[in-house]
User: Fold this.
Amino acid sequence: MIIVDSLTKKYGGFTAVDHVTFNAEPGRVTGFLGPNGAGKSTTMRILVGLTPASSGGVTVLGRRYADLPNPGREIGVLLDASAQHAGRTGREILTLAQRTMRVPRARVDEMLDLVSLSDEESGRRVRDYSLGMRQRLGIATALIGDPEVLVLDEPANGLDPAGIRWMRDLLRGFANKGGTVLLSSHLLHEIEVIADDLVVIGNGRIVAAGTKTELLEAAGTFANAVDVAALARALTGAGHTAEQSLGGVRTDADTAQVGRVALAAGVPLTELRPADGAGLEEMFLELTKDNAREEVAA
Amino acid sequence: MSTAVVENTRAAEDERPRTQYAPIPFRTVVGVEARKAFDTRSGFWLLVTIAAAGVLATGAVLAFASNSDLTYDNFAGAIGVPMTILLPVVAILSVTGEWSQRAGLTTFTLVPHRGRVIRAKLAVTIAIGVSSIALALAVGAVGNIVATGLKGIDTTWDLSFTTMLYIVGADLIGMMVGFMLGVLTRNSSGAIVGYFSYWFVIPTLSMVLATNQSWFEKAQPWVDFNYDQGKLYDGGFSGQDWAQLALTGTFWLLLPLAFGLWRVMRAEVK
Assistant:
Protein backbone atom coordinates (compact mmCIF):
# COMPACT_ATOMS: atom_id res chain seq x y z
CA MET A 1 0.00 0.00 0.00
CA ILE A 2 1.40 3.34 -1.07
CA ILE A 3 -0.42 6.59 -0.33
CA VAL A 4 0.76 9.64 -2.22
CA ASP A 5 -0.81 12.74 -0.74
CA SER A 6 -0.77 16.07 -2.55
CA LEU A 7 2.87 15.65 -3.42
CA THR A 8 4.53 18.74 -4.89
CA LYS A 9 8.09 19.35 -6.04
CA LYS A 10 9.26 22.71 -7.28
CA TYR A 11 12.61 23.53 -8.87
CA GLY A 12 12.76 27.29 -8.67
CA GLY A 13 9.80 28.47 -10.71
CA PHE A 14 9.26 25.09 -12.38
CA THR A 15 6.79 22.68 -10.83
CA ALA A 16 7.90 19.16 -11.69
CA VAL A 17 5.26 17.44 -9.55
CA ASP A 18 2.06 19.33 -8.85
CA HIS A 19 -0.25 18.13 -6.04
CA VAL A 20 -0.08 14.50 -7.09
CA THR A 21 -2.44 12.30 -5.07
CA PHE A 22 -3.11 8.61 -5.60
CA ASN A 23 -3.00 5.24 -3.88
CA ALA A 24 -1.38 2.01 -4.96
CA GLU A 25 -3.47 -0.79 -3.46
CA PRO A 26 -2.35 -4.20 -2.24
CA GLY A 27 -3.18 -7.05 -4.59
CA ARG A 28 -3.17 -4.74 -7.58
CA VAL A 29 -0.72 -3.50 -10.17
CA THR A 30 -0.86 0.27 -10.42
CA GLY A 31 0.45 1.67 -13.67
CA PHE A 32 1.99 5.12 -13.49
CA LEU A 33 1.75 6.41 -17.00
CA GLY A 34 3.04 9.57 -18.58
CA PRO A 35 5.32 10.90 -21.29
CA ASN A 36 9.01 11.42 -20.57
CA GLY A 37 9.52 14.36 -18.26
CA ALA A 38 5.98 14.23 -16.86
CA GLY A 39 7.19 13.79 -13.27
CA LYS A 40 6.98 10.01 -12.86
CA SER A 41 10.60 9.47 -11.86
CA THR A 42 10.64 12.53 -9.62
CA THR A 43 7.56 11.23 -7.81
CA MET A 44 9.21 7.84 -7.35
CA ARG A 45 12.47 9.37 -6.11
CA ILE A 46 10.55 11.43 -3.57
CA LEU A 47 8.73 8.25 -2.51
CA VAL A 48 12.00 6.61 -1.46
CA GLY A 49 13.53 9.78 -0.02
CA LEU A 50 16.20 10.40 -2.67
CA THR A 51 14.66 13.77 -3.49
CA PRO A 52 13.06 16.00 -0.87
CA ALA A 53 9.44 17.03 -1.54
CA SER A 54 8.48 20.71 -1.53
CA SER A 55 5.17 19.85 0.11
CA GLY A 56 2.85 16.91 0.58
CA GLY A 57 4.04 13.43 1.44
CA VAL A 58 4.11 9.73 0.76
CA THR A 59 3.57 6.80 3.09
CA VAL A 60 4.48 3.20 2.35
CA LEU A 61 2.74 0.54 4.46
CA GLY A 62 1.56 3.28 6.78
CA ARG A 63 4.95 4.88 7.38
CA ARG A 64 7.24 7.41 5.83
CA TYR A 65 9.90 5.62 3.82
CA ALA A 66 12.72 6.94 6.02
CA ASP A 67 10.97 5.50 9.08
CA LEU A 68 11.05 1.94 7.75
CA PRO A 69 13.63 0.12 9.91
CA ASN A 70 14.89 -2.05 7.03
CA PRO A 71 13.28 -0.69 3.88
CA GLY A 72 14.54 -3.44 1.57
CA ARG A 73 12.52 -6.03 3.50
CA GLU A 74 9.26 -4.18 2.97
CA ILE A 75 9.61 -2.36 -0.32
CA GLY A 76 11.62 -3.41 -3.34
CA VAL A 77 12.79 -0.51 -5.47
CA LEU A 78 14.20 -0.32 -8.97
CA LEU A 79 14.56 3.26 -10.14
CA ASP A 80 17.24 2.96 -12.80
CA ALA A 81 18.82 -0.32 -13.78
CA SER A 82 21.89 1.47 -15.12
CA ALA A 83 22.58 3.24 -11.84
CA GLN A 84 25.09 0.69 -10.59
CA HIS A 85 28.83 0.79 -10.12
CA ALA A 86 30.02 -0.48 -13.50
CA GLY A 87 33.06 -2.10 -11.91
CA ARG A 88 31.09 -4.51 -9.72
CA THR A 89 29.88 -7.91 -10.82
CA GLY A 90 26.17 -8.65 -10.83
CA ARG A 91 26.61 -11.17 -8.05
CA GLU A 92 28.53 -8.65 -5.95
CA ILE A 93 25.76 -6.06 -6.30
CA LEU A 94 23.21 -8.62 -5.13
CA THR A 95 25.49 -9.67 -2.28
CA LEU A 96 25.77 -6.06 -1.09
CA ALA A 97 21.97 -5.81 -1.01
CA GLN A 98 21.70 -9.18 0.74
CA ARG A 99 24.18 -8.09 3.41
CA THR A 100 22.60 -4.68 3.92
CA MET A 101 19.14 -6.24 4.39
CA ARG A 102 20.56 -9.09 6.47
CA VAL A 103 18.76 -11.84 4.57
CA PRO A 104 20.26 -15.35 4.19
CA ARG A 105 23.13 -15.63 1.73
CA ALA A 106 21.23 -18.30 -0.24
CA ARG A 107 18.85 -15.56 -1.42
CA VAL A 108 21.53 -14.35 -3.83
CA ASP A 109 21.47 -17.59 -5.83
CA GLU A 110 17.70 -17.87 -5.55
CA MET A 111 17.31 -14.42 -7.07
CA LEU A 112 19.86 -15.07 -9.82
CA ASP A 113 17.83 -18.18 -10.72
CA LEU A 114 14.57 -16.27 -10.60
CA VAL A 115 15.75 -13.63 -13.06
CA SER A 116 17.63 -16.18 -15.20
CA LEU A 117 21.12 -14.77 -14.85
CA SER A 118 23.58 -17.65 -15.27
CA ASP A 119 26.64 -18.20 -13.07
CA GLU A 120 28.85 -16.94 -15.84
CA GLU A 121 26.73 -13.81 -16.37
CA SER A 122 26.53 -13.01 -12.67
CA GLY A 123 30.34 -13.10 -12.51
CA ARG A 124 30.67 -10.44 -15.21
CA ARG A 125 31.06 -6.76 -14.43
CA VAL A 126 27.89 -4.73 -14.88
CA ARG A 127 29.78 -2.56 -17.38
CA ASP A 128 29.47 -5.50 -19.81
CA TYR A 129 25.75 -6.08 -19.20
CA SER A 130 23.06 -5.32 -21.75
CA LEU A 131 20.22 -3.09 -20.57
CA GLY A 132 17.99 -6.17 -20.38
CA MET A 133 20.45 -7.93 -18.08
CA ARG A 134 20.69 -4.82 -15.91
CA GLN A 135 16.90 -4.75 -15.60
CA ARG A 136 16.92 -8.40 -14.52
CA LEU A 137 19.62 -7.67 -11.96
CA GLY A 138 17.63 -4.66 -10.75
CA ILE A 139 14.51 -6.80 -10.34
CA ALA A 140 16.58 -9.35 -8.42
CA THR A 141 17.86 -6.59 -6.10
CA ALA A 142 14.31 -5.33 -5.57
CA LEU A 143 12.98 -8.80 -4.75
CA ILE A 144 15.85 -10.13 -2.61
CA GLY A 145 14.35 -8.83 0.64
CA ASP A 146 11.01 -10.57 -0.10
CA PRO A 147 9.11 -7.26 0.14
CA GLU A 148 5.37 -6.55 0.17
CA VAL A 149 5.60 -3.57 -2.13
CA LEU A 150 7.42 -3.12 -5.43
CA VAL A 151 8.24 0.24 -7.00
CA LEU A 152 9.68 -0.04 -10.50
CA ASP A 153 10.55 2.81 -12.85
CA GLU A 154 10.33 1.75 -16.50
CA PRO A 155 11.24 -1.88 -15.76
CA ALA A 156 10.43 -3.12 -19.26
CA ASN A 157 13.03 -0.87 -20.93
CA GLY A 158 15.60 -2.92 -22.75
CA LEU A 159 13.81 -6.24 -22.24
CA ASP A 160 13.12 -8.40 -25.28
CA PRO A 161 9.53 -9.57 -25.94
CA ALA A 162 10.09 -12.77 -23.96
CA GLY A 163 11.56 -10.71 -21.13
CA ILE A 164 8.57 -8.37 -21.13
CA ARG A 165 6.25 -11.38 -20.95
CA TRP A 166 8.30 -12.78 -18.08
CA MET A 167 8.19 -9.47 -16.23
CA ARG A 168 4.43 -9.23 -16.72
CA ASP A 169 3.87 -12.72 -15.29
CA LEU A 170 6.20 -11.99 -12.40
CA LEU A 171 4.41 -8.78 -11.42
CA ARG A 172 0.98 -10.38 -11.85
CA GLY A 173 2.02 -13.24 -9.58
CA PHE A 174 3.40 -10.78 -7.03
CA ALA A 175 0.13 -8.80 -6.95
CA ASN A 176 -2.00 -11.96 -6.84
CA LYS A 177 -0.19 -12.95 -3.66
CA GLY A 178 -1.34 -9.67 -2.11
CA GLY A 179 1.65 -7.52 -2.99
CA THR A 180 1.43 -3.90 -4.07
CA VAL A 181 3.05 -3.01 -7.39
CA LEU A 182 3.64 0.49 -8.66
CA LEU A 183 5.30 0.61 -12.04
CA SER A 184 5.84 3.47 -14.41
CA SER A 185 6.01 3.54 -18.16
CA HIS A 186 5.77 5.99 -20.99
CA LEU A 187 4.22 3.33 -23.21
CA LEU A 188 0.44 2.99 -22.95
CA HIS A 189 0.22 -0.46 -24.48
CA GLU A 190 2.92 -1.84 -22.27
CA ILE A 191 1.08 -0.77 -19.16
CA GLU A 192 -2.41 -1.54 -20.45
CA VAL A 193 -1.70 -5.27 -20.50
CA ILE A 194 -0.45 -5.49 -16.93
CA ALA A 195 -2.02 -2.75 -14.80
CA ASP A 196 -5.27 -3.02 -12.82
CA ASP A 197 -5.26 0.65 -11.94
CA LEU A 198 -3.93 3.52 -13.97
CA VAL A 199 -2.62 6.89 -12.92
CA VAL A 200 -1.91 9.13 -15.89
CA ILE A 201 0.39 12.10 -15.30
CA GLY A 202 1.29 14.95 -17.62
CA ASN A 203 3.33 18.06 -16.87
CA GLY A 204 3.45 17.12 -13.21
CA ARG A 205 -0.32 16.85 -12.78
CA ILE A 206 -2.57 13.83 -12.67
CA VAL A 207 -4.84 13.97 -15.70
CA ALA A 208 -6.68 10.68 -15.23
CA ALA A 209 -6.83 7.99 -12.57
CA GLY A 210 -8.98 4.97 -11.95
CA THR A 211 -9.27 1.28 -12.66
CA LYS A 212 -8.30 0.30 -16.15
CA THR A 213 -11.89 -0.83 -16.85
CA GLU A 214 -13.32 2.53 -15.76
CA LEU A 215 -10.90 4.45 -17.91
CA LEU A 216 -11.53 2.23 -20.92
CA GLU A 217 -15.33 2.41 -20.50
CA ALA A 218 -15.17 6.15 -20.23
CA ALA A 219 -13.79 6.14 -23.72
CA GLY A 220 -17.35 5.79 -25.21
CA THR A 221 -18.17 4.58 -28.70
CA PHE A 222 -16.39 4.70 -31.99
CA ALA A 223 -18.44 4.86 -35.19
CA ASN A 224 -17.74 5.39 -38.85
CA ALA A 225 -20.07 6.24 -41.68
CA VAL A 226 -20.01 6.92 -45.37
CA ASP A 227 -20.74 10.56 -44.52
CA VAL A 228 -18.76 11.12 -41.32
CA ALA A 229 -19.66 14.80 -41.05
CA ALA A 230 -23.39 14.03 -41.27
CA LEU A 231 -23.06 11.39 -38.51
CA ALA A 232 -21.20 13.86 -36.30
CA ARG A 233 -23.91 16.51 -36.88
CA ALA A 234 -26.66 14.01 -36.10
CA LEU A 235 -24.95 12.94 -32.86
CA THR A 236 -24.41 16.54 -31.74
CA GLY A 237 -28.03 17.28 -32.65
CA ALA A 238 -29.14 14.42 -30.40
CA GLY A 239 -27.20 15.93 -27.50
CA HIS A 240 -24.14 13.67 -27.57
CA THR A 241 -20.53 14.65 -27.98
CA ALA A 242 -18.95 13.92 -31.32
CA GLU A 243 -15.27 14.18 -32.06
CA GLN A 244 -14.20 13.50 -35.58
CA SER A 245 -10.88 11.78 -35.65
CA LEU A 246 -8.94 9.50 -37.95
CA GLY A 247 -11.55 7.70 -40.04
CA GLY A 248 -14.55 8.07 -37.75
CA VAL A 249 -16.35 9.68 -34.85
CA ARG A 250 -15.84 9.15 -31.14
CA THR A 251 -18.83 9.90 -28.94
CA ASP A 252 -19.99 9.49 -25.34
CA ALA A 253 -23.22 7.79 -26.57
CA ASP A 254 -23.36 3.98 -26.28
CA THR A 255 -23.52 1.77 -29.37
CA ALA A 256 -27.35 1.40 -29.30
CA GLN A 257 -27.86 5.17 -29.09
CA VAL A 258 -25.47 5.75 -31.99
CA GLY A 259 -27.34 3.13 -34.04
CA ARG A 260 -30.70 4.85 -33.39
CA VAL A 261 -29.33 8.31 -34.16
CA ALA A 262 -27.81 7.07 -37.42
CA LEU A 263 -31.05 5.32 -38.44
CA ALA A 264 -33.13 8.39 -37.68
CA ALA A 265 -30.75 10.62 -39.62
CA GLY A 266 -30.55 8.15 -42.49
CA VAL A 267 -26.75 7.92 -42.30
CA PRO A 268 -25.49 4.41 -43.19
CA LEU A 269 -22.89 3.21 -40.66
CA THR A 270 -19.79 1.38 -41.80
CA GLU A 271 -18.41 0.69 -38.34
CA LEU A 272 -19.78 0.69 -34.79
CA ARG A 273 -17.96 -0.47 -31.67
CA PRO A 274 -16.90 0.52 -28.11
CA ALA A 275 -13.92 2.86 -28.30
CA ASP A 276 -11.85 0.85 -25.77
CA GLY A 277 -8.49 2.43 -25.23
CA ALA A 278 -8.93 4.90 -28.03
CA GLY A 279 -9.90 7.73 -25.70
CA LEU A 280 -7.08 6.97 -23.35
CA GLU A 281 -4.65 6.78 -26.19
CA GLU A 282 -5.76 10.10 -27.62
CA MET A 283 -5.46 11.76 -24.26
CA PHE A 284 -2.05 10.26 -23.91
CA LEU A 285 -0.92 11.36 -27.35
CA GLU A 286 -2.19 14.82 -26.58
CA LEU A 287 0.02 14.89 -23.47
CA THR A 288 2.99 13.63 -25.38
CA LYS A 289 2.45 16.21 -28.09
CA ASP A 290 2.35 19.13 -25.65
CA ASN A 291 5.48 17.85 -24.07
CA ALA A 292 7.28 17.43 -27.35
CA ARG A 293 6.36 20.99 -28.29
CA GLU A 294 7.78 22.30 -25.06
CA GLU A 295 11.02 20.52 -25.65
CA VAL A 296 11.32 22.03 -29.11
CA ALA A 297 10.58 25.49 -27.74
CA ALA A 298 13.21 25.08 -25.04
CA MET B 1 -17.53 11.51 -0.51
CA SER B 2 -17.62 7.83 -1.29
CA THR B 3 -13.96 7.80 -2.28
CA ALA B 4 -13.02 9.36 1.05
CA VAL B 5 -14.85 6.58 2.89
CA VAL B 6 -13.14 3.95 0.80
CA GLU B 7 -9.76 5.52 1.47
CA ASN B 8 -10.38 5.51 5.21
CA THR B 9 -11.21 1.81 5.32
CA ARG B 10 -8.14 1.12 3.26
CA ALA B 11 -5.98 3.20 5.56
CA ALA B 12 -7.37 1.26 8.53
CA GLU B 13 -6.65 -2.01 6.77
CA ASP B 14 -3.11 -0.83 6.35
CA GLU B 15 -2.64 -0.51 10.10
CA ARG B 16 -3.00 -4.25 10.63
CA PRO B 17 -0.05 -5.76 12.47
CA ARG B 18 2.75 -6.81 10.17
CA THR B 19 6.18 -8.28 10.58
CA GLN B 20 8.38 -5.87 12.50
CA TYR B 21 11.85 -5.87 11.06
CA ALA B 22 14.82 -5.01 13.22
CA PRO B 23 16.59 -1.80 12.24
CA ILE B 24 19.78 -2.27 10.24
CA PRO B 25 22.65 -2.11 12.76
CA PHE B 26 25.44 0.37 12.13
CA ARG B 27 28.04 -2.42 12.03
CA THR B 28 26.19 -3.91 9.04
CA VAL B 29 26.40 -0.62 7.17
CA VAL B 30 30.10 -0.36 8.04
CA GLY B 31 30.70 -3.96 6.89
CA VAL B 32 28.98 -3.33 3.56
CA GLU B 33 30.88 -0.07 3.05
CA ALA B 34 34.20 -1.80 3.81
CA ARG B 35 33.38 -4.41 1.19
CA LYS B 36 32.42 -1.72 -1.31
CA ALA B 37 35.79 -0.01 -0.87
CA PHE B 38 37.55 -3.00 -2.46
CA ASP B 39 35.05 -4.95 -4.55
CA THR B 40 35.33 -2.86 -7.72
CA ARG B 41 38.02 -3.13 -10.33
CA SER B 42 39.39 0.31 -9.44
CA GLY B 43 39.41 -0.57 -5.74
CA PHE B 44 41.15 -3.87 -6.44
CA TRP B 45 43.87 -2.38 -8.65
CA LEU B 46 44.41 0.46 -6.24
CA LEU B 47 45.20 -2.09 -3.55
CA VAL B 48 47.46 -4.06 -5.89
CA THR B 49 49.27 -0.85 -6.82
CA ILE B 50 49.75 0.09 -3.19
CA ALA B 51 51.14 -3.36 -2.39
CA ALA B 52 53.40 -3.36 -5.46
CA ALA B 53 54.70 0.12 -4.67
CA GLY B 54 55.44 -1.00 -1.11
CA VAL B 55 57.38 -4.05 -2.29
CA LEU B 56 59.32 -2.01 -4.88
CA ALA B 57 60.16 0.63 -2.31
CA THR B 58 61.38 -1.97 0.18
CA GLY B 59 63.44 -3.59 -2.56
CA ALA B 60 64.91 -0.22 -3.47
CA VAL B 61 65.95 0.44 0.12
CA LEU B 62 67.57 -3.01 0.26
CA ALA B 63 69.37 -2.55 -3.04
CA PHE B 64 70.51 1.03 -2.90
CA ALA B 65 70.70 2.18 0.73
CA SER B 66 74.09 2.30 2.43
CA ASN B 67 74.48 0.18 5.58
CA SER B 68 73.90 3.17 7.81
CA ASP B 69 70.58 3.84 6.07
CA LEU B 70 69.22 0.36 6.73
CA THR B 71 67.05 1.60 9.61
CA TYR B 72 63.52 0.96 10.70
CA ASP B 73 62.56 4.53 9.87
CA ASN B 74 63.65 4.09 6.26
CA PHE B 75 61.97 0.73 5.77
CA ALA B 76 58.66 1.76 7.28
CA GLY B 77 58.84 5.02 5.36
CA ALA B 78 59.47 3.26 2.05
CA ILE B 79 56.22 1.33 2.39
CA GLY B 80 54.38 4.10 4.16
CA VAL B 81 54.90 6.81 1.56
CA PRO B 82 53.12 5.15 -1.38
CA MET B 83 50.34 4.14 1.00
CA THR B 84 50.06 7.65 2.37
CA ILE B 85 49.63 9.04 -1.10
CA LEU B 86 47.37 6.37 -2.61
CA LEU B 87 45.09 5.30 0.24
CA PRO B 88 43.14 8.58 0.39
CA VAL B 89 42.06 7.77 -3.16
CA VAL B 90 40.17 4.82 -1.65
CA ALA B 91 38.42 7.30 0.63
CA ILE B 92 37.63 9.56 -2.31
CA LEU B 93 36.17 6.80 -4.46
CA SER B 94 34.08 5.39 -1.62
CA VAL B 95 32.18 8.68 -1.44
CA THR B 96 32.17 9.80 -5.07
CA GLY B 97 31.18 6.37 -6.46
CA GLU B 98 27.71 6.88 -5.02
CA TRP B 99 27.29 9.87 -7.31
CA SER B 100 29.70 9.38 -10.22
CA GLN B 101 28.68 5.74 -10.66
CA ARG B 102 25.15 6.47 -9.41
CA ALA B 103 25.39 3.56 -6.99
CA GLY B 104 23.80 5.86 -4.40
CA LEU B 105 20.41 5.19 -5.94
CA THR B 106 20.58 1.74 -4.36
CA THR B 107 22.72 2.60 -1.32
CA PHE B 108 20.57 5.46 -0.07
CA THR B 109 17.37 3.53 -0.85
CA LEU B 110 18.39 0.53 1.23
CA VAL B 111 19.66 2.78 4.04
CA PRO B 112 17.49 5.88 3.81
CA HIS B 113 19.63 7.88 6.24
CA ARG B 114 22.55 9.42 4.41
CA GLY B 115 24.24 10.42 7.65
CA ARG B 116 24.58 6.76 8.62
CA VAL B 117 26.07 5.79 5.27
CA ILE B 118 28.53 8.69 5.35
CA ARG B 119 29.50 7.92 8.95
CA ALA B 120 30.07 4.29 7.95
CA LYS B 121 32.29 5.43 5.08
CA LEU B 122 34.22 7.65 7.47
CA ALA B 123 34.68 4.73 9.89
CA VAL B 124 35.96 2.55 7.03
CA THR B 125 38.32 5.33 5.91
CA ILE B 126 39.81 5.66 9.38
CA ALA B 127 40.05 1.87 9.79
CA ILE B 128 41.86 1.54 6.45
CA GLY B 129 44.21 4.36 7.45
CA VAL B 130 45.11 2.88 10.84
CA SER B 131 45.43 -0.72 9.66
CA SER B 132 47.56 0.22 6.66
CA ILE B 133 50.01 2.09 8.89
CA ALA B 134 50.14 -0.93 11.20
CA LEU B 135 50.84 -3.08 8.15
CA ALA B 136 53.55 -0.70 6.92
CA LEU B 137 55.21 -0.75 10.35
CA ALA B 138 55.03 -4.55 10.51
CA VAL B 139 56.41 -5.11 7.00
CA GLY B 140 59.03 -2.44 7.66
CA ALA B 141 60.10 -4.30 10.79
CA VAL B 142 60.49 -7.56 8.88
CA GLY B 143 62.43 -5.78 6.11
CA ASN B 144 64.66 -4.16 8.69
CA ILE B 145 65.45 -7.45 10.44
CA VAL B 146 66.00 -9.37 7.19
CA ALA B 147 68.18 -6.67 5.59
CA THR B 148 70.41 -6.05 8.57
CA GLY B 149 70.64 -9.82 9.11
CA LEU B 150 71.75 -10.37 5.52
CA LYS B 151 74.39 -7.69 5.73
CA GLY B 152 75.45 -8.72 9.22
CA ILE B 153 75.01 -5.30 10.81
CA ASP B 154 73.20 -4.19 13.95
CA THR B 155 69.44 -3.75 13.57
CA THR B 156 68.47 -0.16 14.26
CA TRP B 157 65.04 0.62 15.79
CA ASP B 158 64.88 4.36 15.39
CA LEU B 159 61.13 5.00 15.54
CA SER B 160 59.77 5.94 18.93
CA PHE B 161 56.16 5.30 19.84
CA THR B 162 55.49 9.03 19.88
CA THR B 163 56.87 9.39 16.37
CA MET B 164 54.58 6.60 15.25
CA LEU B 165 51.60 8.45 16.69
CA TYR B 166 52.63 11.55 14.75
CA ILE B 167 52.80 9.46 11.58
CA VAL B 168 49.37 7.96 12.24
CA GLY B 169 48.01 11.45 12.73
CA ALA B 170 49.58 12.75 9.52
CA ASP B 171 48.27 9.80 7.49
CA LEU B 172 44.79 10.11 8.90
CA ILE B 173 44.76 13.79 7.98
CA GLY B 174 45.72 12.77 4.45
CA MET B 175 42.83 10.32 4.30
CA MET B 176 40.47 12.95 5.68
CA VAL B 177 41.59 15.37 2.95
CA GLY B 178 40.60 12.71 0.41
CA PHE B 179 37.30 12.13 2.18
CA MET B 180 36.61 15.86 2.33
CA LEU B 181 37.32 16.30 -1.38
CA GLY B 182 35.01 13.36 -2.16
CA VAL B 183 32.19 14.79 -0.07
CA LEU B 184 32.75 18.27 -1.45
CA THR B 185 32.86 17.43 -5.16
CA ARG B 186 30.83 14.19 -5.29
CA ASN B 187 32.74 13.54 -8.50
CA SER B 188 35.55 11.00 -8.82
CA SER B 189 37.75 12.75 -11.37
CA GLY B 190 37.26 16.18 -9.80
CA ALA B 191 38.16 14.91 -6.35
CA ILE B 192 41.23 12.99 -7.55
CA VAL B 193 42.54 16.00 -9.48
CA GLY B 194 41.93 18.14 -6.40
CA TYR B 195 43.70 15.60 -4.24
CA PHE B 196 46.84 15.39 -6.35
CA SER B 197 46.92 19.17 -6.60
CA TYR B 198 46.85 19.24 -2.82
CA TRP B 199 49.79 16.84 -2.69
CA PHE B 200 51.97 17.95 -5.56
CA VAL B 201 50.96 21.31 -7.02
CA ILE B 202 50.13 23.42 -3.98
CA PRO B 203 53.27 22.39 -1.99
CA THR B 204 55.51 23.26 -4.93
CA LEU B 205 53.89 26.65 -5.47
CA SER B 206 53.95 27.30 -1.77
CA MET B 207 57.63 26.37 -1.56
CA VAL B 208 58.57 28.58 -4.49
CA LEU B 209 56.66 31.46 -2.98
CA ALA B 210 58.29 30.92 0.42
CA THR B 211 61.76 30.84 -1.13
CA ASN B 212 61.24 34.08 -3.01
CA GLN B 213 59.09 36.08 -0.65
CA SER B 214 60.32 36.31 2.90
CA TRP B 215 56.94 37.52 4.19
CA PHE B 216 55.36 34.27 2.94
CA GLU B 217 58.07 32.16 4.53
CA LYS B 218 56.93 33.55 7.88
CA ALA B 219 53.25 33.24 7.03
CA GLN B 220 53.45 29.76 5.52
CA PRO B 221 52.98 27.72 8.74
CA TRP B 222 49.87 29.78 9.45
CA VAL B 223 48.24 29.30 6.04
CA ASP B 224 49.69 26.18 4.40
CA PHE B 225 47.89 23.08 5.66
CA ASN B 226 49.99 20.68 3.61
CA TYR B 227 53.14 22.18 5.13
CA ASP B 228 51.81 21.71 8.65
CA GLN B 229 50.68 18.18 7.89
CA GLY B 230 54.13 17.36 6.50
CA LYS B 231 55.78 18.64 9.68
CA LEU B 232 53.88 15.95 11.61
CA TYR B 233 56.12 13.29 10.05
CA ASP B 234 59.08 14.88 11.85
CA GLY B 235 57.20 14.97 15.16
CA GLY B 236 58.16 17.06 18.18
CA PHE B 237 55.36 19.60 17.92
CA SER B 238 55.43 22.70 20.08
CA GLY B 239 52.33 24.54 21.24
CA GLN B 240 52.72 26.92 18.34
CA ASP B 241 52.98 24.03 15.85
CA TRP B 242 49.70 22.61 17.16
CA ALA B 243 48.06 26.02 16.94
CA GLN B 244 49.19 26.38 13.32
CA LEU B 245 47.93 22.89 12.47
CA ALA B 246 44.60 23.61 14.16
CA LEU B 247 44.21 26.88 12.30
CA THR B 248 45.07 25.62 8.81
CA GLY B 249 43.23 22.34 9.44
CA THR B 250 40.05 24.15 10.38
CA PHE B 251 40.24 26.35 7.33
CA TRP B 252 41.31 23.80 4.71
CA LEU B 253 39.78 20.61 6.07
CA LEU B 254 37.01 21.06 8.64
CA LEU B 255 35.13 23.96 7.06
CA PRO B 256 35.03 22.47 3.54
CA LEU B 257 34.11 19.12 5.07
CA ALA B 258 31.23 20.65 7.00
CA PHE B 259 30.00 22.46 3.90
CA GLY B 260 30.30 19.28 1.80
CA LEU B 261 28.40 17.22 4.38
CA TRP B 262 25.67 19.82 4.57
CA ARG B 263 25.22 19.56 0.82
CA VAL B 264 25.41 15.75 0.74
CA MET B 265 22.52 15.57 3.19
CA ARG B 266 20.38 17.67 0.90
CA ALA B 267 21.56 16.86 -2.61
CA GLU B 268 19.19 14.95 -4.84
CA VAL B 269 20.38 11.47 -5.72
CA LYS B 270 19.69 10.91 -9.40
